[in-house]
Write a structure and sequence with these properties.
It is built from seven helices and two strands. With about 200 residues, the chain is mainly α. It has a domain of about 130 residues. The chain is extended. The protein starts with a helix and ends with a helix.
Length: about 200
């Protein structure tokens, strides 16, 4: 069979020798130019590529808590935007506070900002479950590099931080809880990265 195929190809090529040969350019429209980078005395070609997040397909077997994973995805999709709001608002507040030298005026500005935020987001926060609240506390630490307790203590004082920590403990949460992307929160981190990249 292989001999028949080869013979047919050779006959086709022989028949094309008298006609004009058209050579198509095989260079793709999009190509990348490698640049040379020296590392440890050796020059090597290199190209920058986008980071790729690989997420394995969750198993539906009994050993893997698939339903729990799905709940975590749903909850993170709901609360993650609020963590971004917190980060953005903190950046804005800090920029304003730099321009307010008087301590009394700073406190007044913080109280007014807090009142405005409560008015804007209070209903959304009240609709969150305790589980979603815990996730938000961790995500705030992820986005701001500060626990919720530290943020309250810095902006509202130690007494206010202790008060809200007491309220949080009544509901089984902890404002001092830190985000651990390489430990307890590794699955959470994978989901958040997928949300950020738009793949989830």
């Amino acid at each position: 069979m292989a001999i028949v195929i080869l013979f047919g190809i050779s006959q086709f090529v022989a028949g094309q020798t008298d006609s004009a040969v058209i050579v198509n350019d095989t260079l793709p429209e999009n190509f990348y130019m490698l640049h040379s980078v020296e590392r440890n005395g050796v020059s090597l070609p290199e190209i920058d590529i986008k980071e790729v997040v690989i997420i394995g397909k969750p198993s539906t077997g009994k050993k893997f808590p698939y339903a729990r994973y799905q709940r975590l995805v749903t909850n993170l999709k709901k609360v993650y935007p609020y963590a971004l709001v917190v980060r953005s608002k903190l950046e804005s507040i800090n920029e304003e506070l730099v321009n307010i030298p008087d301590d009394k005026d700073r406190k007044k500005y913080i109280r007014q900002t807090e009142k405005n935020l409560f008015g804007e987001y209070e209903d959304d926060i009240r609709d969150m479950t305790i589980t979603q609240g815990r996730l938000l506390i961790k995500l705030i630490d992820r986005e701001t590099q500060n626990t919720s307790y530290e943020l309250i203590r810095y902006y509202r004082g130690s007494l206010s931080a202790a008060f809200w920590q007491g309220i949080a403990r009544i509901f089984g949460t902890n404002l001092k809880e830190e985000y651990d992307p390489y430990g307890d929160d590794a699955v959470m981190e994978i989901i958040v990265q997928a949300i950020e990249s738009g793949t989830l």
